[in-house]
């Protein structure tokens, strides 16, 4: 087995890994920034609903980043698709939370510990991530 190929491509792996991790952190921060309550404080106090919702957002983001890495032709392409995916996920989250459930404040329900709502919103984030990831395959 010739390890020289792996050594020659190690720099690409490390660069894409670093960029992907930065995009993941940025995306997670953006999701946390648009949340009307402190997810960190809620999770520290044992709010499982908030933890499930945040985990779903993060998983949806990872699915999209995975697809972007697999299909990107270069780092710029990766970054562009990652930002498009983050924006789409935010917009769809807002549409679901505020349009389809006008009579229920889902953010307040999650903040109050409604695990069913947290799981639903986290699951929707994963599903949206899967749809967006599939479309990145152009």
UniProtKB/TrEMBL annotation:
UniProt organism field: Alkalihalobacterium chitinilyticum
Membrane-crossing residue ranges in chain numbering: 13-34, 54-73, 79-100, 112-136
Keyword Transmembrane: yes
Family that this chain belongs to: Belongs to the UPF0719 family.
Pfam families, per database record: DUF350
UniProt keyword annotations, A-Z: Cell membrane, Membrane, Transmembrane, Transmembrane helix
Coiled-coil ranges (or none): none
Nucleus recorded as keyword: no
Compartments, as annotated in UniProt: Cell membrane
Record-given protein name: DUF350 domain-containing protein
Lipid bilayer topology: Multi-pass membrane protein
InterPro entries, alphabetized: DUF350 (IPR007140)
């Amino acid at each position: 087995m010739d390890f020289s190929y792996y050594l020659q491509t190690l720099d690409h792996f490390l660069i894409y890994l670093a960029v992907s991790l930065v995009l993941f952190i940025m995306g997670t921060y953006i999701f946390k920034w648009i949340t009307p309550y402190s997810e960190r404080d809620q999770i520290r106090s044992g709010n499982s609903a908030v933890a499930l919702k945040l985990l779903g957002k993060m998983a949806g983001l990872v699915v999209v980043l995975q697809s972007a890495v697999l299909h990107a032709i270069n780092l710029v392409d990766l970054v562009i698709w990652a930002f498009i995916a983050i924006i789409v996920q935010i917009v769809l989250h807002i549409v679901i939370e505020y349009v389809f459930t006008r009579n229920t404040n889902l953010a307040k329900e999650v903040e109050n510990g409604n695990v069913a709502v947290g799981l639903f919103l986290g699951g929707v984030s994963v599903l949206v991530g899967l749809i967006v990831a599939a479309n990145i395959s152009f």
